[in-house]
Predict the 3D structure of the following.
Amino acid sequence: MTSKSNKITLRETFAIHYRAYKDLRPYCPGVFASAGIHGAVSALSPYATVYLSARLINELAGARRPEVLWPLVGITLAVTAGLVLLTGALLHWKNAAWDRYIQAKEKLFTDKMLSLDYADVDNAKTHDLLSQIRQNELWAGWGFQVLLEAFGEIARGIAGILGAIVLTISLFILPVPASAGWVAILNHPLFIALLAAALVLVALLAPLCKNKANQYIASISEDAKFANRFFHAFGSLSGEKESNLDIRMYNQQKIASFYLKQNNTFCIGGKFSRLSLGPIGGLSALSASISAVLTGLVYLFVCLKAWGGAFGVGSVTQYVGAVTALSTSLSTLVEMLGMLQSNTPSYNKFQS
């Protein structure tokens, strides 16, 4: 990434995307609300199932009282079915709003062009700028699309963190009985604090690696836009019926082949390929590996506390699911903030 992009602060990122939000929202009312509400409900829905499943397993592993089991089964089925229907309805609302967004975005660009003086509309720089905006959208989705997707994912992340905290807090509060022997060390506040810090650190490292990979992708935006123009101009020649005669008369396929090979950003051995095989691929793999390590730490801690007698076997599913979801939600939040930061240079062109 360029040094200029590296200097973009979170305050600048929020300011420019807030302006983008204000620009787009009047053209498609409800699109941000649908993305945010769907994201939040989608994040919270699994917690209800996890919690009720834990209660069922605890009862089955314990007293197995029919008067308790049957109501639990009925409540679990009803809640699960209701959440599936609610999530489906919200997804339909979100998809419908997204379709309106695509048209609204084009109307926003059209209104902007119509608001310009004729001299500005006729200026080649204006059309070049619009072309760059569309190239950014086509090759990596930069621009309004990232803002809308991030809005829903940030809502999902925040809701997921809050829900996970509610289900996870008892994991650290419930003590292991002193009779459990050395496992009772898990009750020590320092041990719990260190573990919580390790979980947060690992949860942050994964998205930071992903964000760094995204910065490498954003760093080749200018090359990518130029390469897209070549591919669009020369790569589609054979599919244009009006050009077939000229292609055969003047052997234009040789010209197309020459320029496509000269600008090889996306070709084998090109800049994007080298980055994918190098830092982008390495950072993405490291991000996935860190997430796997976190899952292992969670299983180890939860299972040791269950083995020591701090809670029943059914609670293992609750805590593992909740802590894993907490990590995922935290990672999603950090990753989306990084994505918005990487999107800022592209959105700057909208303000030109």
In short: Residues 82 and 234 are 53 Å apart (CA to CA).
